[in-house]
Amino acid sequence: MPELWESSFIANQTMWGFEPADSAIRTKDLFVEKNVKEILIPGIGYGRNAKVFTDNGIDVTGIEISGTAIDLARESGLEIPIFHGSVSDMPFDDKRYGGIFSYALIHLLSEHERGKFIKDCYEQLKPGGFMVFTTISKDAPMYGKGKQLGDNYFEIMEGVRMFFYDDESIKQEFGNYGLVDVSEIVEPHKNAEGKPPFPFHMVICQKEG
User: Fold this and answer.
1) pTM of the full structure
2) Angle, to 10 degrees, between the axis of helix 111-123 and the axis of helix 167-174?
3) In Å, how far from its chain's centre is CA 18?
4) Secondary structure of 109-132 as H, E, C letters
């Protein structure tokens, strides 16, 4: 499954470090402002983006396909509910969450999988809840590299397929799910000096309440 793209780096242990992504910090600010108390993080990995939420009084539930990543999260002291499985098998519970945060995952899914994932996340939101997706931009250096599989969709290396979003595709895929804001964010490699930052889109949707 596509979630293995990030989890495949587990061989290098926690190569991304434990500092949260800048988009996770910005999402935390939004959730605190909107008084969100419970969130779901699909593709939580080893949990580096979870602590910024729990430290601010937000209850976090995760979904992660890699058992090794879940073990690393536990070893780092992250004691939160984590469903062991693929986001393609959502939902794992019947809860409705005030917020959902998905970091660098959706662009690893196929068109069908992306549509299901967005719909599944939206359906697990409480009325008035927010979901935030951080996804790769067409401005990323790997855009256009490797084998082209479709419009803006490339196999950049064996087994790693990426869909690169632009404003049009964001409106097309998120427009029916309460799209309220799109912004650009450049994510630095906080645990690897000298590596170029990655350009992302932050996509924010709100469920009608």
Assistant:
1) 0.89
2) 50
3) 16
4) CCHHHHHHHHHHHHHCEEEEEEEE
> What span, in angstroms and rounded, lies between the C-alpha atoms of 207 and 123?
9
Tell me the C-alpha distance between 169 and 175, whole Å.
9
List, in order, residues 6 or more apart from 110 with CB less than 8 Å away: 2, 161
Q: Angle at Cα 124 formed by Cα 122 and Cα 126, nearest 5°?
A: 90
Euclidean distance between CA atoms 2 and 34, whole angstroms:
31
Helix H segments across the chain?
A: 4-7, 22-33, 51-54, 67-75, 111-123, 167-174
Residue corresponding to tokens 């951080």: 134
| Phi then psi dihedrals of residue 82, to 5 deg | -135, 120
54: helix, strand or coil: helix
Query: What percentage of the chain's residues is helix, strand, coil (to nearest 5)?
Result: 30, 30, 40
Question: What is the pLDDT of the chain when averaged over all its residues?
Answer: 90
What distance lies between CA 162 and its chain's CA centroid? 14
**Residue range 77-111, pLDDT digits in tens:** 999 999 999 999 999 999 999 999 999 999 999 99
Task: Tell me the sheet residues that pair with 187.
Answer: 198
